[in-house]
Amino acid sequence: MYIVGICAAFYGILDVCDTMHNIVDARHERRIQIRKQNELRAAFLKNHKITKDCEEGKCPCRTEGQLAYDQYRPTIIKKKVEIAPKTIAQMSAEVHTCLATAIRRNTFYIIASLGNGKEVVCRCIGLRNHNFIGLDHYFHRLSCLPLDTCIEFANTNIRQVINFKDISYKYVKNSGLVIGKLPIDIPLFKNIVKYFIDGKLVNNLPHKAFVVEPEPPNYNNKMNTCDLTWHVEDITLHDDGFNVPHVMAINDDLKPTFFQHYWSYKVNGRGMCGSLVISNAQLSNPIVGIHIAGMVSGERGYAELVTKETLVSLLDAVEIEDIEIEGQMFGDEYIKIENNFDKVKSNLEGTGNFLGVVPNKYAYNPPSKSKCKHSMCYNKITISTYDLPHLHNKDPRFEGSPMVKGCSYHLKPVKPFEQSLLKLAVNDVKELIFANVRPLRQRVCKLSITQSVCGIPKIEGYDAMEFDTSEGFPFSSVRPSGFNDKKWLFDLSVGADGYKLHSVDHRLMQVMKYKDNQRKQGIVPCTIFIDCLKDIKLPKEKCHKTRIFSVSPVDFTIQFRQLFYDFTIAFQKAMFSVESAVGINVDSYDWNDMVRKLLDNSDKFVCGDYSKFGPRLMTSCVLEAFNIISEWYYINGDTNINNRKCRLVMGHEIAFAKHLMFNLVYEVMSGAPSGCPITTILNNIVNMLYLRVAYIVLLRENLMIYKKLSNIEVTSLCSVSSFKNYICVIFYGDDLIMTVKEQIISFFNSVKLSIFFKRYDIDFTDALKTDSIGKDYATVYDRETSFLKRTIRKHDFRFVYTAAMDKRAIEETCNWVFEGHVEPEASLIACEAMMLNAFGCGRDYYCQLRSRVMEFWRKERLVPRIPTWDEVDWRIYDSNL
């Protein structure tokens, strides 16, 4: 009985083995058959010529790289199923939301304009930092276009011209993919590498998946959203290899694209390339592939398998790994930025990323009424020609929202310089700063929180932070009643050595700890600057020109001072040796020294003013400025890796700042927030870069002028290092004054500079802001030779130069005070301030204005504390004070 059973089992096993062998043979034969079919297909594709039928979607080939959206896109019947988070069976709602946010943020298009309204639109997906993944047939097409083709970067709300040569990319071997890197003036991507599948999990994935197709931007609305179509599909994994014809196959040298592992599914259509395939498995990293081709008939689509391991092996290491755009932690609460633009209080239009809205609790409600008011002596000492600023859309004098009008300049980026030119300018500025900016402390390093808040009393310049200003987002929303500034966040006492810090609000400490950890990990925190309208008196003809001040969060101010204060103080101390007037006392020998330094170079003055300089700073220049500062710390002894990483991250927090306008959070592509702790010095460095790039270009374009020079002079001029041989310049933020030597004044002057900067959409006008430049250069006493709103004047009897402030601005000072200031003290102080500004205009003017002031207050039976002109002169030049 046992023998019979054993025999039966033995023959059963043999039967199973035969069956399995037959199955294996059948599969083997099937694979051979498929391979032969692919070989035949490849041979056919190799000899296939692109015709007009192919361009119109009538290609006889079975598959194609579905290149792009255009006006000739054929209608494809596709199964579209919109999936809301709650209807997803297996993928968690949290993962779905995170993926949707990341895909919307990271999907972008490279658009090439062909003329006659035709475009090549190539969808790509950002991976992290400036790295992206694209498809080879896109880049084959782009690389064959004429060199003068206009190339643009575009996403939902941005359409920005870029230099295609500034996009670096490489083709991936045995793949249809391209790994690339965008220029640094494009906003960073969310890190989605972590969302790609681990290779070891691929074989165990379920069949159910989504093909996520982002809709192309239409730019019809002020604030667009990226709509995603989630196609529900059954996907099948293949490892038998796949060929896609080369889109530019005009000879036998261009082989079809081959990739080994791919997915197939039924959804398909022209323009779907670059869509992500996402598994419906319960995973935190469900992205499994990228749509790369489809059958012309529309029956099937194909996606190349992409794993996290593949991407990690292809991407270079970066210091900044990710960005936070979803919101920020505040104590125990996470302030979420909701991607619902129906709740926006005011629409904003321009080139930037619109992130969403904050809860009403954290929205900013600006005051509708100015705090400026007339003083006691309004129109009694001098006649006022100024008025209140435009602060509200209900102001009967003007139309529209002043806030929207002002913020719109944050969304008008300039055109970037060519990277090769900027690199030369950066190197020259870097060498100048490294040679002349010396630390005031023996050892530069990260300051403590106490040092950042209270300063270092024993060292000149290391002052405490200002406490009488706003605490910024989100702290201003929870400010206790009875306070009107940030002092409530600190427990302080004042002694002989200044402030002493006892404690800091626990929520502020938590926010700083949270963001510090993010920066050390290479994550850019969600730091938000509140946009406020400047409440200052303005000339009546300029009251409609609204000005925005973007308030820095107090946590950012403290941590920025910790990491940058050593450089800030050292740079300010260096002054003229680094072409800077930051820290200048205009009513002192400083002004005389500056003018003499300029005249030692030449008597031909060139002055200028930029329109909206701060809000439209070139991003690449801002980032290079932070690179210079970070390197300065390194060569001066701060070699801490975390400190360097934090400085670079903070540079991105400023260069791509997130602003809050009412309840709308938006991210800019240019400028620097006016309230950031390094605004003036940052503007200085960017201005230095601007002028050097202009110098390089104008020199190269005017080589014929060299015929007037000696060979030695020609050799010298051909390098940016010759800049200081022919130009002496002093900057104060966006303001500049310089003298230019005779040899180059014909092509390096006010008019030529204005024309040059227009190429980059930068408005450079004369210092008087007349919107035009009348002459190439000026002389020392000309009205056009203006700096810091002052002209140059001879002292009444000393051999020094004085700074003469505009008399209209001087005489307006006494007419205005702020609400809440006690009278008559406020008006007395306004009169005293007016007289301080009047000194540089000379004894006669000062004395007659002082007489009018004293006469007014005599009638009020009060005596202002206003010294005579001679007393002021003695204090400035003889007292050694």
Automatic annotation (TrEMBL):
Residues 603-748 form the RdRp catalytic domain. Keywords: Hydrolase. CDD domains: ps-ssRNAv-Picornavirales. Coiled coil: none annotated. The keyword Hydrolase applies. One of its GO terms (molecular function) is RNA-directed RNA polymerase activity. The keyword Hydrolase applies. One of its GO terms (biological process) is DNA biosynthetic process. PROSITE patterns: PCV_3C_PRO (PS51874), RDRP_SSRNA_POS (PS50507). It comes from the Eukaryota. Residues 94-311 form the Peptidase C3 domain. This is Polyprotein. It comes from Glossina morsitans morsitans (Savannah tsetse fly).
